[in-house]
Amino acid sequence: MAKQEDIFKNVVSHAKEYGFIFPSSEVYDGLSAVYDYAQNGVELKKNIREYWWKAMVQMNENIVGLDAAILMHPTTWKASGHVDAFNDPLIDNKDSKRRYRADVLIEDYAEKLNQKAQKEIDKAKARFGEAFNEQEFVTTNARVMEYKSKQRAILERMARSLENEDLADVKLLIEELEIACPESGSKNWTEVRQFNLMFGTKLGASADSAMDLYLRPETAQGIFVNFLNVQKSGRMKVPFGIAQTGKAFRNEIVARQFIFRMREFEQMEMQFFVRPGEEIKWYEHWKETRLKWHLSLGLGENKYRFHDHEKLAHYANAAADIEFDFPFGFKELEGIHSRTDFDLKAHEQYSGRKLQYFDPELNENYVPYVVETSVGLDRMFLAVFATSLQDEVLEDGSSRTVLKLPAVLAPTKAAILPLVKKDGLPEIAHKIIADLKWDFNVSYDEKDAVGRRYRRQDALGTPFCITVDHQTMEDQTVTIRHRDTMKQDRVNITELKNIIESEVAMKNWLMKM
Ligand code: ATP
Fold first, then answer.
1. pLDDT(78) > 80
2. Could you read off the pLDDT of 230-272 as tens digits, one per residue?
3. What is the pLDDT of residues 306-356, one digit of tens each?
4. Bond prior to 239 in cis (omega within 30° of 0)
5. CA–CA separation, 141 vs 343, rounded Å?
6. Which of 265, 333, 377 is the best mutation target for the ligand 1 pocket, counting ligand atoms within 8 Å of the beta carbon and taking the most?
7. What whole-number distance in Å separates Cα of residue 53 and Cα of residue 252?
8. How far does residue 334's CA lie from ligand 1's centre (Å)?
9. What is the pLDDT of residue 1?
10. CATH 3.40.50.800, the chain: domain bounds
């Protein structure tokens, strides 16, 4: 089995074993691509959400929050284009009966060509060492050029066919490339069909008067339809932003990869309203600012890359993804889109109401342009969790599993451990907890030998273990052990709060932005 797959399996099982993520309704064998956040997962998720919220809302005078309802008037989704165009092209393999996204099958094929090109580049790099000029190699080496141009041609043809709704050509492309079902190996495919990703539901009791609704597939539209309410009641001046976190629902066709692609997930979105003509400046600003936010968590610069969209959605005039190096490769973590005035104009048109802003400096009314930043909370969780989960070989040859979460996000900040369950040590430990819990999430553990308790806290990502021993009775000191270095210091109980605070305070982390 590939190493990547091993790592990913390990992530999934660790998340379950240590109370981070469970399959939904597991007693009934689960529900595909739906997950529950367990006692530690809910804390980590909440901390990520708060880290985002503080960076967005608290630290920006011109950004305010919103919590719009999940259910919205159904015309919202006509106006936004979701009813007509929020589709994925699907294809079934007749032998395995497995369903795939046709575009993903083709993209995976194209990515393999890319990987082949990369292999050639890596080989040459190893051969030529310092003298290697990658730029020159990529533009002159016949093999690399062939792989790259083939990859481009495939992706371009697919994009063209999808845009023209030419699904027959999408199927033809799959046949021409001789793409086989990864499960059965067969090339026996059905036609390609469009499939709308919105979940439908009904409002109202009686069948004839019921209204067809959708569970929102994105949180953004709740912000757009409230744009003028917020602007007027908050006396906001363009440029300003509205931030929101909340659930979104998509009936994803291929929902594998754990919490990367879920049917019910949470988004953290901010729509920034700007003067027409100034959107590209703000788009660049938010691209840079969002990357800084990610980098402030310290998971490593090499884990992120931008993917600038060459082909833009009909409503956008610039778009990029921040991609993250997940255990299954670089994939979208966040989208930053310059959405023009498409959404507000569409809601004006469908509602018959004006959604305009009077700009006192220009002395004119206009529909603002919008720059959106949209990050999946669950994908953030996966990025942080998978990167932090590490197996370490220690100096004495033994090994440990440690979840090196950024301390600011760790579910529990400190575990208080009495060395033994007697001699008054548990009482002191409980007193320390009673004091620290006003400021931090802390836990108590007295079961097993202290070494095993340390290992358990390492696996949970707890940055500090505080051990109460017999010396504590005499001089009010305890040992504090640091998760990452495993270093232990003897400190006075009164110092604990400051020591923990300096490593976990959001302020100290956000200041790195
Ligand atoms: P993808 O191409 O991966 O399907 P998308 O381009 O459709 O994603 P957006 O509509 O831009 O995604 O949504 C914004 C963010 O919401 C994404 O960057 C991602 O982090 C998150 N997201 C989207 N779909 C899902 C999902 N099914 N499960 C978890 N997170 C998701």
1. yes
2. 999 999 999 999 999 999 999 998 767 899 999 999 999 999 9
3. 999 877 877 889 999 999 999 989 999 999 999 999 999 999 999 999 999
4. yes
5. 45
6. 265
7. 27
8. 8
9. 43
10. 397-510
How do strand 240-249 and strand 63-65 relate by DSSP bridges? Answer: parallel
Q: Which residues contact 454 (CB under 8 A, 6 or more apart)?
A: 465, 481, 486
Specify the CATH superfamily of domain 397-510: Anticodon-binding domain (3.40.50.800)
pLDDT over 70, % of the chain: 99
For residue 376, the ligand 1 atom closest to its alpha carbon is 20
pTM: 0.90
CATH of region 1-73+197-393, choose from 3.30.930.10, 3.40.50.300, 1.10.760.10, 3.30.70.3270: 3.30.930.10
56 secondary structure, DSSP code: I
Q: What are phi and psi of 428, to 5 degrees?
A: -65, -45
Q: Is 250 in the pocket of ligand 1 (CB under 6 A)?
A: yes
Q: Is the pLDDT of residue 302 over 60?
A: yes
Q: In testing the pocket of ligand 1, which one of 379, 380, 382, 385 has its CB within 8 Å of the most ligand atoms?
A: 379
Give the residue whose CA is nearest to atom 29 of ligand 1.
Answer: 261
As to burial, measured by CB atoms within 10 angstroms (0-12 exposed, 13-18 middle, 19+ buried), residue 380 is buried
Distance 411 CA to ligand 1 centre (A): 25
Task: Cite the residue boundaries of each domain of the chain with CATH code 3.30.930.10.
Answer: 1-73+197-393
pLDDT per residue as tens digits for the range 165-185: 899 999 999 999 999 998 889
Give the span between the Cα atoms of 202 and 58, in whole angstroms: 37
